[in-house]
Write a structure and sequence with these properties.
By secondary structure, the protein is of the alpha/beta class. About 40% of the residues lie in helices and about 20% in strands. Helix 7 runs antiparallel to helix 8. About 45% of the residues are buried.
């Protein structure tokens, strides 16, 4: 089994300088690739000069996270792709436990490690934490992270188990499954594309796992600031697109209508606490979603997966004040 470590880069020279050494040091027997997404800040020359051992792939334009990986991975021969954000520090023996899972389970399509916060290393990080899940309205959350509440890591998620989605910050995916299922949805550009892909895996009976024996540390927001209105736009639009593509037919209309109403309420809350730019971002997200609606409907496949186990997590979190994963109820 051959694993290739693949980092998508766009104007992230400062993160490459900081974190590539840890990847090289802790992955001595693996090919490491950087897919440059048409950076405008001389990143290619920086990589060639400072990291000549890195294999470089150059995209002709910035295709976003989804399209950038889709295009670049076509040029890499491997059994397993490790899709790694540029702002991630890896640790010794971070790959072997995950490779073992793939070897033991041919039905396994994707795996993520434990993802901790680089700046507070005893806390889980927002993007993935201890493995991703969705509730019965399609809201994503994680073991170790529910909305904005991050748990302290005291070994509670040192297990290995099935989850709903693996984080794109550090996602190991079987190459044949990635290509067979069409890779990431390029219409998403960035955000939610890994959840959508994992949902498609589940709908086809594939498995997605979390491996607590492997640990990485993630900065988060390295390319797009966490408080960016553009991030709000992409998250809200892509979440709706994902529902249309993947929800069971009987659930599509009630869940989608509920989410549209809830988004309106959320927009007013964002206006109060985050400013008008975030309210505007949600409004633009809905307009963009409507323009993509029929295209997303055409992408629907036969659904066989029960998608959400926990019941309406926003209500439990904001009203019932259940802030941690173990407090949530079905």
């Amino acid at each position: 089994m051959k694993t290739a470590i693949v980092i998508l880069n766009w104007n992230s020279q400062q993160w490459l300088k900081k974190f590539l050494p840890s990847v090289i040091e802790n992955s001595p027997d693996y090919d490491i690739y950087v897919i440059d997404n048409a950076s405008t800040q001389n990143d290619v020359k920086f990589i060639q000069t400072n990291f000549p051992e890195i294999k470089l792939i150059e995209n002709d334009e910035n295709l976003g996270y989804a399209g950038g990986y889709n295009e670049g991975l076509k040029k890499i021969k491997a059994d397993i792709f490790c899709l790694l954000n540029s702002d991630v520090e890896v640790t010794p023996n971070w790959i072997a436990p995950i490779e073992k899972l793939f070897e033991e389970n041919e039905n396994l399509a994707a795996v993520q490690p434990k993802i901790l916060d680089f700046y507070q290393q005893d806390f889980f990080e927002y993007a993935g934490a201890g493995g991703g899940l969705v509730d019965n309205f399609g809201y994503p959350f994680c073991r170790g992270r529910v909305f904005w509440t991050l748990e302290k890591d005291h070994g509670q998620y040192d297990d290995t188990q099935a989850v709903f989605w693996a984080s794109g910050a550090c996602m190991f995916v079987r190459a044949k499954d990635f290509f067979e299922f069409g890779g990431f949805d390029g219409d998403f550009f960035a955000h939610m594309e890994e959840i959508d892909l994992c949902w498609r895996f589940h709908n086809a009976g594939k498995a997605v796992f979390y491996c607590g024996e492997s640990t990485v540390y993630h900065v988060g927001g390295g390319t797009l600031n966490k408080n960016s209105p553009q991030k709000t736009f992409l998250n809200f639009r892509n979440s709706l697109c994902m529902l249309v593509k993947n929800l069971p037919k009987r659930m599509l209309l009630p869940v989608l209508l509920s989410r549209l109403i809830l988004d309106g309420i959320t927009a007013l809350v964002f206006w109060r606490y985050e400013g008008f730019s975030h309210l505007s971002a949600i409004f633009r997200a809905h307009l963009s979603f409507y323009s993509l609606l029929f295209k997303m409907i055409k992408k629907r496949k036969i659904n066989v997966h029960t998608y959400g186990s926990k019941c309406f997590v926003p209500f439990q979190y904001f009203i019932l004040k259940r802030k941690k994963y173990h407090q949530l109820r079905d």
